[in-house]
Specification:
Elements (H helix, E strand, L loop, with lengths): L1 H14 L7 H7 L30 H6 L10 E6 L2 E5 L4 E7 L2 E5 L9 H8 L5 E5 L5 H4 L12 E5 H9 L10 E3 L3 E5 L2 E8 L7 E6 L4 E3 L12 H5 L3 H12 L5 E3 L9 H22 L2 H11 L5 H24 L6 H18 L1
Parallel strand pairs: 4-5, 5-6, 6-7, 11-12
Antiparallel strand pairs: 1-2, 2-3, 3-4, 8-9, 9-10, 10-11
């Protein structure tokens, strides 16, 4: 279907080839001089315009927020509210809540899940593990669940769509859920409440927003990276349109901390607001660039003597993306870390969404 849309759009553009040309675009896009372009391949060759040293370093503000990793365990463990702990090895995150009647675990990343039983035993000696909650079905966040396979009576909680995905494709290391839901679901243990709300912002099937109201703690995995521009394709989202609506959803919660599953930094409300403003700026900037798309395409196609429309289409996408990224990098450098690493990806993601929708 997407291929058909592409062909139809290209044919439509061909039909408009008699439009007035704008040589200014061609003059910019045909500049042969080698120069740094954040959308090109990162090079390790000294002297190359895109040598890795041409990119900005991580911001001092971001580095200052990173918690210390214990050199013996390779983990950082913090009690952020009484009985509520978050765990990270610097790349992935999970959390667990200790109650008088048992422990609730949230996600089990394979990068450090094998260490979680000892961590939990240290901070909750003699207290049994009762629940393991999956944020969504991606293996990089729950693929270490099998480490809890011998926990007697363990209840594994996940959205029904996660189970369906598991049935379609083998997921080694992921324990089969014992409790499923397809609407907002709530359970309690030891006087503590866990609220699970289905949402759509990342996974190809279904995500879950985890909320602990008493602790004012919310978990929305693969959404933001506190202090940084989001990972490629806005956290590799499967639906950037839905991702753009995520921020209003999550900001409706009352929370002090947000766990987003990646980097070592635990986020705050201000991080969500900053990420929202950045994402919406990319959306607007790429959208404004799309207003020039047809004219740019026809200019490029004319320069190619009306041959190879696919090449002209790619060149036009790259030109719009490049202008978008330059604006975003200029506006957001100093506000978020690693903007120049991912801005091109973010702009292209929105450009493709506009083309296909």
């Amino acid at each position: 279907m997407k291929a058909l849309k592409f062909i139809a759009f290209a044919q439509f553009c061909l039909g408009l080839s008699a439009l007035a040309l704008q040589p200014g675009y061609a003059a910019v896009d045909n500049d042969p001089s080698p120069q740094f372009n954040s959308g090109d391949d990162v090079s390790m060759a000294p002297g190359h315009p895109n040598h890795f040293t041409a990119f900005a370093t991580e911001s001092p503000e971001m580095l200052a927020r990173m918690p210390a990793i214990d050199p013996e365990t390779g983990l950082h463990v913090s009690e952020i509210k009484p009985g509520l702990f978050y765990v990270t090895e610097g790349v992935y995150q999970s959390a667990f809540l200790v109650t008088e009647q048992g422990v609730i675990i949230f996600d089990a990343p394979p990068s450090f899940a094998h260490k979680l039983p000892d961590v939990i035993a240290e901070h909750a000696p003699g207290i049994i593990i009762r629940y393991l909650v999956y944020s969504h079905g991606h293996s990089d966040h729950i693929g270490g669940a099998s480490v809890f396979g011998d926990v007697e009576g363990l209840q594994i909680v996940a959205h029904a769509a996660t189970v369906q995905s598991m049935e379609r494709a083998a997921r080694p290391g992921i324990l089969v859920p014992t409790i499923t839901y397809d609407a907002p679901y709530e359970f309690s243990l030891g006087g503590e409440t866990v609220e699970l709300t289905p949402a759509s912002f990342h996974a190809e099937d279904m995500d879950t927003i985890v909320y602990l109201p008493r602790q004012r703690f919310v978990m929305a995995v693969d959404t933001i990276t506190p202090g940084e521009a989001a990972f490629m394709n806005f956290g590799a989202t499967s639906d950037v349109g839905a991702y753009m609506t995520f921020f209003d959803t999550i900001l409706a919660y009352e929370f002090d901390h947000i766990l987003s599953g990646h980097v070592s930094v635990l986020g705050a409300r201000e991080d969500v607001i900053m990420a929202r403003d950045y994402a919406h700026d990319v959306w607007r900037t790429a959208g404004a660039g799309m207003a020039t798309f047809l004219d740019r395409f026809n200019t490029t196609l004319a320069a190619l003597e009306y041959k190879n429309a696919n090449l002209a289409y790619r060149a036009t996408i790259e030109a719009v993306r490049r202008d978008c990224a330059r604006e975003i990098i200029d506006r957001w450098t100093g506000k978020l870390s690693v903007v120049d690493v991912w801005a091109d990806s973010h702009c292209q993601t929105v450009i493709l969404y506009n083309i296909m929708h």
